[in-house]
Amino acid sequence: MPVSPSSPDNSISLRVPARLENVRRLTRMVSDLALQADLSERAVYHCRLAMDEACTNIIEHAYPTQDDGEIAMQVTLQEDELVILLTDFGLPYDPANVPHPPTHAPLDRMRPGGLGLHIMRTVMDDIQYRVSNSGNHLRMVKRRLS
Amino acid sequence: MSIEISIKKMNRVDLLIVVGRVDSTTASELGDKLDKQISAGTVNLVVDLAGAEYMSSAGLRELVGALKRVKKDGGDLRLSSPSERVQEVLELAGLNSVFEIYDDQVTAVGSF
To answer: What would the pLDDT profile of A102-145 be if each residue is shown by its tens digit?
Structure first.
């Protein structure tokens, strides 16, 4: 498993091609660490969901026409929270600019976009997005007691 | 195993039994199966989720797309037996008021 050998037990770092077949692998690594951190079964499920949605968004929106993009993941287990940092090197995609989808709207008003992001924002305790010269950084936090 | 979908044709409804994870990798498989049934003329569908341990927005999009199609033709797509976690995702997305959701497969099929 390509976990950085210098990673301490409470942290995982790796970089993989931004492809759908890698999403499940990244998600599983996060949920394993969340389980190790004694997060509740529901909180672990939330982390899996948020990871799935975040990685899918990166593949679809950061690399819409690029098939050699990469996702760098760093997951750190801190005293009372799990911190997931995802970095991509494609087009900036700021979740803050995406409106909430019209949930509980009539069927004909439901649209496909934004649902994953809405789920991420709802199940995680904090989400921040930052663009820098070194990439686009999405930081998601799940607190142990949430 | 990631996803398995079996189909049972009943008198008034087709029943799709989904087992496994419905995520960004497998959702298209669910979408293809639903498309195939609808294209063949089925307008009443029950999707049984008792064995679906996980569902992301990719799976929800396929279900909503299929629901829109059958509704246009006067049919319906109803869900049965979602796990507590899948039910939570449906609620987060506001889809619990869009789909009729039943506790068990028999009641869902019988509702047509």
So the answer is: 666 667 666 666 788 889 999 999 999 999 999 999 999 999 87
Exposure string for A96-135, b = 16+ CB within 10 A, e = fewer: eebeebebeeeeeebeeebbbbbbbbbbbeebebeeeeeb
Residue A50 belongs to domain spanning: 11-143
Average pLDDT in chain A:
86
pTM to 2 decimal places: 0.88
* CATH code, B82: 3.30.750.24
User: For residue B51, what is the enclosing H or E element?
Assistant: strand B44-55
Nearest C-alpha of chain B: how many angstroms from A67?
16
Distant-in-sequence, close-in-space partners of A32: CB < 8 Å, separation ≥ 6: none
ipTM of this complex: 0.86
Check which CATH number belongs to the domain holding A18 and give it: 3.30.565.10
pLDDT at A58: 94
Distance CA(A23)–CA(B104), nearest Å, equals 32
* B90 chain-A contacts, CB cut-off 8 A: none
Q: Tell me which of A21, A42, A45 to substitute to probe the interface with B (most B C-beta atoms closer than 10 Å).
A: A45
Number of domains in chain A: 1
